[in-house]
Amino acid sequence: xxxxxxxxxxxxxxxxxxxxxxxxxxxxxxxxxxxxxxxxxxxxxxxxxxxxxxxxxxxxxxxxxxxxxxxxxxxxxxxxxxxxxxxxxxxxxxxxxxxxxxxxxxxx
Length: 108
Fold this sequence. Notes:
Blueprint: E1 5-7, H1 12-18, E2 26-28, H2 45-62, H3 71-91, E3 95-97
Parallel strand pairs: 1-2, 2-3
């Protein structure tokens, strides 16, 4: 199946804004994963700095001030993830595109 690709961050606000636009679209719901190519050119200092900055951004998302880390808060967040998938399917999204490290590919 083909369709446009839409990038949303998965937050409640982003979901509310993009939900009417997801019908027939593939979704990307996060930052792309950094993939290091051992066969490519050596990493530069700028590459290393960008990789560290991306890691810090990912960690900051889990360390937001005021985030409810109680059992009730964790269950609510988990339920929101389940609800998001259901809402996207109901709105007609074709699917969610994800990345995986090269080493996780199936081999024959």
